[in-house]
């Protein structure tokens, strides 16, 4: 496994790097082949908490987990547990999808937005990520897996960028831009 460990404003000791390698080694049992891309691990300390963020792509599906705790080693343990849960959940969904031939499961979540004035709203984070073509059903699974309320993807049928989002009713909406 190709694991890239990065420290965000902190040094990575060999012991910490070895611990990350050992813990992420638990995930190898889920791989038929090594992940398509390197596994990216970012370690940082924010406001006294040790934060670990891991991203890996397996069979075209992006898995991402993030955890914070008072101890870096505990954060690593927690993030690996979370990744295992995501992978198991994904495998279950795939198996159920084949068993039920088209029966779709939904995870409903309610969303709330802070009641701030418009002048207080600002962009606090920008993310860049590779976008792979997929169908709408696969995008729904990916969105549920990541626990997001929306998902940007390239629609394999139209070859255009689409946005899938969760409506207040729990159903999904799809935005297809017209140019």
Automatic annotation (TrEMBL):
<keyword id="KW-0810">Translation regulation</keyword>
<dbReference type="InterPro" id="IPR034694">
    <property type="entry name" value="HPF_long/plastid"/>
</dbReference>
<dbReference type="GO" id="GO:0043024">
    <property type="term" value="F:ribosomal small subunit binding"/>
</dbReference>
<dbReference type="GO" id="GO:0022627">
    <property type="term" value="C:cytosolic small ribosomal subunit"/>
</dbReference>
<keyword id="KW-0963">Cytoplasm</keyword>
<dbReference type="InterPro" id="IPR038416">
    <property type="entry name" value="Ribosom_S30AE_C_sf"/>
</dbReference>
<dbReference type="InterPro" id="IPR050574">
    <property type="entry name" value="HPF/YfiA_ribosome-assoc"/>
</dbReference>
<dbReference type="InterPro" id="IPR032528">
    <property type="entry name" value="Ribosom_S30AE_C"/>
</dbReference>
<comment type="function">
    <text>Required for dimerization of active 70S ribosomes into 100S ribosomes in stationary phase; 100S ribosomes are translationally inactive and sometimes present during exponential growth.</text>
</comment>
<dbReference type="Pfam" id="PF02482">
    <property type="entry name" value="Ribosomal_S30AE"/>
</dbReference>
<feature type="domain" description="Sigma 54 modulation/S30EA ribosomal protein C-terminal">
    <location>
        <begin position="119"/>
        <end position="174"/>
    </location>
</feature>
<comment type="subunit">
    <text>Interacts with 100S ribosomes.</text>
</comment>
<dbReference type="GO" id="GO:0045900">
    <property type="term" value="P:negative regulation of translational elongation"/>
</dbReference>
<dbReference type="InterPro" id="IPR003489">
    <property type="entry name" value="RHF/RaiA"/>
</dbReference>
<protein>
    <recommendedName>
        <fullName>Ribosome hibernation promoting factor</fullName>
    </recommendedName>
</protein>
<comment type="similarity">
    <text>Belongs to the HPF/YfiA ribosome-associated protein family. Long HPF subfamily.</text>
</comment>
<dbReference type="Pfam" id="PF16321">
    <property type="entry name" value="Ribosom_S30AE_C"/>
</dbReference>
<dbReference type="InterPro" id="IPR036567">
    <property type="entry name" value="RHF-like"/>
</dbReference>
């Amino acid at each position: 496994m190709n694991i890239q460990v990065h420290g965000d404003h902190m040094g990575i000791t060999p012991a910490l790097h070895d611990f990350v390698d050992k813990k992420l080694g638990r995930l190898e049992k889920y791989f038929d082949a090594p992940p398509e891309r390197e596994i990216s691990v970012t370690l940082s300390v924010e406001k006294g908490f040790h934060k670990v963020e891991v991203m890996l792509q397996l069979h075209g599906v992006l898995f991402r987990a993030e955890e914070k705790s008072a101890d870096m080693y505990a954060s690593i343990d927690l993030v690996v547990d979370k990744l295992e849960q995501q992978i198991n959940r994904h495998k279950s969904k795939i198996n159920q999808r084949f068993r039920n031939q088209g029966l779709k499961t939904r995870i409903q979540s309610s969303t709330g937005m802070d009641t701030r004035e418009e002048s207080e709203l600002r962009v606090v984070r920008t993310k860049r990520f590779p976008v792979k073509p997929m169908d709408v059903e696969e995008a729904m699974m990916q969105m549920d897996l990541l626990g997001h309320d929306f998902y940007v993807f390239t629609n394999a049928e139209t070859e255009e960028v689409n946005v899938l989002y969760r409506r207040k009713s729990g159903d999904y909406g799809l935005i297809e831009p017209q140019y």
